[in-house]
Write a structure and sequence with these properties.
The protein has 169 residues and is of the alpha+beta class. It contains 3 helices and 7 strands. Helices cover 28% and strands 24% of the residues. A 5-stranded mixed beta sheet has the order 1-2-5-4-3, sandwiched between helices. Strands 6-7 form a two-stranded antiparallel sheet. It is globular, with a radius of gyration of 18 Å. It comes from Rhamnusium bicolor. It holds the Pfam family DDE_Tnp_1_7. This is PiggyBac transposable element-derived protein domain-containing protein.
């Protein structure tokens, strides 16, 4: 869906949602209740989107910006978190919002993951690998969104190098 400016016509049924959530709702509507899982990054995520998809029997998860409307404010402060720390909150509609410290703090939201934890292997400064705690959302998100995130990074690197007129192999 191509963004056509703020004056573009909006489907009435999704008018109460922001631009990102409207795109997700429009593109996923044909799959509601059909045993599908929708993944998206923080541009598209919001608490009301996850609640709407849950009400339509559609599973969803993704990263989310920490300042989105409706997210709990009483989370553990970033400065107090160390690698592997997790803080969870669950909404009245069972949407899980969590904050996890990896190399930096990552915010995630899901309407089907609970508060279970697992582990991921991470490289230490000395080159060894270590298991650190993480929310169950992380491996799922990385498995299904990893390619998109890599493509975004490559596209960004291409744009930067193109502006500086340097070739990168």
């Amino acid at each position: 869906m191509v963004y056509q400016g703020k004056d573009a016509a909006v489907e009435e049924k999704f008018q109460s949602f922001g631009l990102g959530p409207r795109v997700v709702l429009s593109l996923s509507e044909d799959y509601w209740g059909k045993n599908r899982i929708v993944y998206f990054d923080n541009y598209f995520s919001s608490l009301d989107l996850l609640e709407k998809l849950k009400a339509k029997n559609t599973l969803a998860c993704g990263t989310i910006k920490s300042d989105r409307v409706g997210l709990p404010k009483q989370m553990k402060p970033d400065k107090e978190m160390t690698r592997g720390d997790i803080d969870y909150r669950v909404s009245k509609m069972d949407v899980t919002y969590c904050k996890w410290h990896d190399n930096r703090v990552v915010h995630l939201i899901s309407n089907y993951h609970g508060t279970k934890s697992t582990t991921v292997k991470r490289m230490q400064k000395d080159g060894s690998r270590k298991d650190i705690a993480c929310p169950e959302i992380v491996p799922d998100y990385n498995r299904y969104m990893g390619g998109v995130d890599r493509a975004d990074r490559l596209r960004q690197a291409y744009c930067i190098n193109r502006r500086s007129k340097k070739m990168v192999a």
